[in-house]
Every structure is written in structure tokens, then in C-alpha cells.
Design goal:
Radius of gyration of chain A: 21 Å
Number of helices of chain B: 3
CATH topology of chain A: Amidase signature (AS) enzymes
Shape of chain A: globular
Number of helices of chain A: 16
Structural class of chain B: mainly alpha
Structural class of chain A: alpha/beta
Largest interface: A-B, 49 and 41 residues
Order of helices and strands of chain A: HHHEHEHEHEHEEHEHEHHHHEHHEEH
Number of domains of chain A: 1
Strand order of the largest sheet of chain A: 4-6-5-10-11-9-7-8
Radius of gyration of chain B: 18 Å
Number of domains of chain B: 1
CATH architecture of chain A: Alpha-Beta Complex
Helix content of chain A: 25-40%
Distance between the termini of chain A: 29 Å
Helix content of chain B: 40-55%
Number of strands of chain A: 11
Number of strands of chain B: 0
Distance between the termini of chain B: 46 Å
CATH class of chain A: Alpha Beta
Order of helices and strands of chain B: HHH
Oligomer: heterodimer
């Protein structure tokens, strides 16, 4: 390898997903070189941030060699040919372990492959390992007493956010260019906000959840965390669409890549008058103001919007989530309750408290609540709101286990999340600023049902004129 | 609406055949009371015809052909 090629190879680990895929396709770098460079970064960062639960170096290098050999024969699998990825350890791959962050599933080998993974691999990607997650995807902080906590690459005393803790940390530290997360109550968006990456929760029903760990079948969504909106769009284009294994995707429209490139000129951008703008830390408020200013400069019309009571939606979401999660885990709660961590066990036990009438009222209200939301927003295309009222808190101050302050702490962290899961609307988190301590601050761009592509277009234009998403944490 | 009675938790857990530790009903009652009371305060009067899948009907009105 000559000197220039060696430099490209070393830098290739920090390429975005779109850059990496293009560089491999154009033979500027090989899959073997990219994989080796990523493994080197993983070796350096893993002891600090615990982002991976398994690193599959040998098999990844073997798959990289096979990708390069296929390319040499002119056999390109798809738009991610030769790209190594890793995902939250709840996406099943037949014959591989999927521990789901839990002692209960320790050693479990998945019998099937999740649709999202199958589609990413059909597009040419392969796995370099599996990523850390909160136990059974049921913690917004990312704490995991069984696996040890994942740590935020910007400050290892801070939480990553959860439950897609490893996905947020690994993408932020440039250990993988993109990773799947899942979002039932903020589990893509919170790690994106706290770790300073871009995260996309698609419309409920747009991406198949088949053969991934369920938490709440009415709320679960599958989506990417990546370095940019472009990268999220590339992953979404591959994984979105109808799947006979997941009936909620039946009738979902095909992904419209052209619509993701439209200009936001003429778009109507809403900013909530309450709830999402209450009691914000100054850095979050400043990021919101700057983003609205940016959208104005992009030719969008910014208007205020008075949304229906979001606290009521959050309560309904919590009832649905709690009951469905508890029901799914009931067999293990009966036999193996001691194998759960305290926080997750306590939260699962909370789901026993709701009556059947409360649960079904919460589900039956969902349609009327979405109709009321759509009435309130009128012809607004995208709502801009904070992802959280502050940047990442410390691991210590949020380490509440199953104690008396646990539920209140969790509710505070997920305050701006749950209403949007209940409404099933697509939501994109983009880095938009930093706190006084240099920690990332993200904003949510909230779309209309099945308006995923319009949302991507707005986020893409925002990132074209800002550089928050290019900031990266460094090893000390 | 009054706070949730721990006895309600004991009964529901028993019906679900999930054993609880002795102190758990009180903890659970404290944890869920804000959610239950907030939801009850909506005092919903849903149309008789509203069902969970009504959500999908509303959602799909947004699909542009």
C-alpha cells in the first residue's frame, strides 16, 4: 500500500456511511481496509465506552475479504456492498446470539433473522459485532447492571441514553458508520441527543419489526442512528417497506428517495407554544432558536403551534407500554424474576397495576388523539422541538435502580418522547448545539404520519447549513 | 381520583400469577398513581365505534397516492 492509500485507509474508519459505501464502490478503499481500520478504533475505544457486547473481528475480516473478492468479480450486492455495521443486540441473526442486554437471554441463539438485518445484508453490509443495549430495551438512561453501563464518548461519566446505548455510543465514537436502534419510548432519539448523532424513528408501520425483540407491539419502531440525515435516509430506504412477517407494515408506501431531496423552501415549520419549550436549559433553548432561524433562512415559514395536551398523551403511552411489556415478560416474571435488573423488574411490575379498561381506553383513544393532533397542526409539515430539556446527566445521578425516585427520574428523561410514540409520527433527532460543558444537544424534527421523506428533506437541508453533526468526541 | 390502593396491585398481580415481593405493591402504587390519575383526568368519552385500529385508519388518511 502506498502512503496515500494508507492515509485513506486509516481515515476510512471515520467516513460517514454514504462516504464509506461510495469509497468501497469506487475502489478508493477496500472492505478489508475499512474493516481493519474500524476494528482498530474499536480496540481503542471499547475499554472506555463499552459500546459492544461482542466484537466479531475474525468473521468480519473474512466477510470483508469475501466482499472484496465478489467486487473483483463484478458482483456488487447493493448500495452497502462491503460496509461493516453493528446493531443493537436485539436484532436476530439466525445462528447467532442475541442477548437483548439481559441475563434472562444469556446464551440464547436466534433461530431466525430479522427483516431489517436481512435487508441490510442483502444490500451488501455485514456484521462486525453486536452493540450494547439497556436490558430488554426498557431503560431510557442506558444503565445495564448485568453488562456494565455503556458510557458516553463525550464524557464517560455521563449516560449514553437508552435503550439503544451502544448504537449511540458506537456511532458517536466512529466505531461503525451506522447502527440500528429501536424506539418505543425514545430509545433511538435519546441516545442520538445525548451522544450527538442523528437518529430516525420512522412512522409506526413503515419499517418491519419482524424477528427483533418486542417491547410494546403497539409502539415499537425500528430505525437507524448514524452520522447524518443522509446516512439515515440511506438505511431507511433499504429497510422500509411492506413485510408479510409484520402486518403493521401492510399497505405502507414504498420509500420515495426523490422526495428526500426536496428543498424546504415553502415548508411550514411549527414550534410548540408549550410543553416542549417549558423549563429548558439555556443551551437547549439557544439551539432551538438557532434552528428556527436556520429554517427561516432556508425559505421555510416558521409558525407557532398549540398542540393538544402532551402530558395526557404521555400517560396513555405509558399505560400501553407498561401493560404490553409486562404481558410479554409475564412467563419470565413468574419463573425468573430474580434474573432481571432492579430497574427493569420494577418497571415491568408496574405494568401489573393497570386495569384492562385503562389499557384498552388508552389504545382506543389513539386514533382520536392522532386526529386531534392533525387538526391542531393543520398544514404544518414539520414541528421543531427539543429532544430533552438538558444535555446528558451523569450515570451516578440517574442510577436509580428500582428505588422510590426511579419512575420520576425516568418520566423526566422521557418527557418529550412518549407523546410521539403514542401518535406514531416520524421523528428525526439532529445535533443542533452544545451545552456549556461541551456536551451535544439535539433537536427533534417531528413529521406527519408517513411524511418520513419530507422530514428527511428538512433535516438534510438543516445539516447542509450547519456543522453540529460533524463534531466528534476524541480519545484523551 | 384517589391514590392507587396497594391492595389493587396485590389482586391484579395475583390474577396475573406474578409473585411480588412483600414491599412491592406499595412501591408500584406510588409509581403508577401519577399516570393513572393523569389519564383518568382526561375523562374520555370515546365514540362507541372507536377501536384500537381506528389509529391506523386516521394514520393512513395521510398517505398520498
Amino acid at each position: 500500500m502506498n502512503e496515500t492509500a494508507a492515509l485513506i485507509s486509516a481515515d476510512s474508519a471515520t467516513f460517514t456511511l454514504t462516504e464509506m459505501a461510495a469509497a468501497i464502490r469506487d475502489r478508493k478503499v477496500s472492505s478489508v481496509e475499512v474493516t481493519a481500520a474500524l476494528l482498530k478504533r474499536i480496540e481503542a475505544w471499547q475499554p472506555r465506552i463499552n459500546a459492544f457486547v461482542r466484537i466479531e473481528a475474525d468473521s468480519a475480516m473474512e466477510l470483508a475479504r469475501a466482499s472484496d473478492a465478489a467486487q473483483a468479480r463484478g458482483d456488487i450486492k447493493g448500495p452497502l456492498h462491503g460496509v461493516p455495521l453493528a446493531h443493537k443486540d436485539m436484532y436476530y441473526t439466525a445462528g447467532k446470539p442475541a442477548g437483548c442486554g439481559s441475563k434472562v437471554r444469556e446464551g440464547w441463539i436466534a433461530p431466525t433473522t430479522s427483516t431489517a438485518i436481512a435487508r441490510l445484508e442483502a444490500a451488501g453490509s455485514f456484521r462486525i459485532g453486536a452493540l450494547h443495549m439497556a436490558e430488554f430495551a426498557f431503560s431510557p438512561t442506558g444503565h445495564n447492571p448485568y453488562l456494565g453501563h455503556a458510557r458516553n464518548p463525550w464524557d464517560t461519566e455521563r449516560i449514553t441514553g437508552g435503550s439503544s446505548s451502544g448504537s449511540g455510543a458506537a456511532v458517536a465514537a466512529r466505531l461503525v458508520p451506522a447502527a440500528l436502534g429501536s424506539d418505543t419510548g425514545g430509545s433511538i432519539r435519546l441516545p442520538a441527543h445525548f451522544c450527538g448523532v442523528t437518529g430516525f424513528k420512522p412512522t409506526y408501520g413503515r419499517v418491519s419489526r419482524a424477528n427483533a425483540l418486542p417491547l410494546s407491539f403497539s409502539l415499537d419502531t425500528v430505525g437507524p442512528l448514524a452520522r447524518s440525515v443522509d446516512d439515515c435516509a440511506l438505511v431507511s430506504q433499504i429497510i422500509a417497506g411492506s413485510d408479510p412477517l409484520d402486518p403493521t407494515t401492510s399497505g405502507a408506501p414504498a420509500w420515495d428517495a426523490e422526495a428526500t431531496a426536496r428543498s424546504p423552501r415553502g415548508m411550514k415549520i411549527g414550534v410548540p407554544t408549550r410543553f416542549y419549550v417549558d423549563d429548558l436549559e439555556p443551551s437547549v433553548a439557544a439551539a432551538l432558536d438557532a434552528a428556527l432561524d436556520a429554517f427561516g433562512k432556508l425559505g421555510a415559514r416558521v409558525v407557532k403551534v398549540d398542540l393538544p395536551d402532551q402530558a395526557a398523551l404521555a400517560a396513555a403511552a405509558l399505560i400501553v407500554l407498561a401493560v404490553e411489556a409486562t404481558t410479554a415478560h409475564a412467563p419470565w416474571l413468574r419463573e425468573r424474576a430474580q434474573d432481571y435488573g432492579e430497574q427493569v423488574r420494577a418497571r415491568l411490575e408496574n405494568g401489573l397495576a393497570y386495569s384492562a379498561v385503562e389499557y384498552l381506553e388508552a389504545l382506543r383513544w389513539r386514533g382520536p388523539a392522532l386526529a386531534a393532533h392533525l387538526d391542531a397542526i393543520g398544514d404544518i409539515d414539520v414541528i421543531v422541538a427539543p429532544a430533552s430539556r438538558a444535555a446528558a446527566p451523569t450515570i451516578a445521578e440517574t442510577d436509580v435502580g428500582g428505588g422510590p425516585t426511579a419512575e420520576a427520574t425516568i418520566l423526566a428523561i422521557t418527557r418529550f418522547m412518549r407523546p410521539l410514540n403514542y401518535l406514531g409520527v416520524p421523528t428525526l433527532v439532529v445535533p443542533a448545539g452544545q451545552s456549556s460543558e461541551g456536551l451535544p444537544v439535539g433537536l427533534q424534527l417531528i413529521g406527519r404520519p408517513f411524511g418520513d421523506e419530507r422530514l428527511i428533506a428538512a433535516g438534510r437541508a438543516f445539516q447542509d447549513m450547519t456543522d453540529h453533526h460533524r463534531r466528534a468526541p476524541r480519545l484523551p | 381520583m384517589p391514590d392507587i390502593d396497594p391492595e389493587r396491585i396485590r389482586v391484579l398481580a395475583e390474577a396475573a400469577r406474578v409473585p411480588l415481593r412483600t414491599e412491592s405493591p406499595e412501591r408500584i402504587a406510588r409509581a403508577v398513581t401519577p399516570t393513572v390519575t393523569r389519564f383518568a383526568a382526561e375523562n374520555l368519552a370515546l365514540a362507541l365505534e372507536a377501536e384500537p385500529s381506528t389509529f391506523v385508519v386516521v394514520q393512513r388518511r395521510e398517505i398520498v397516492p
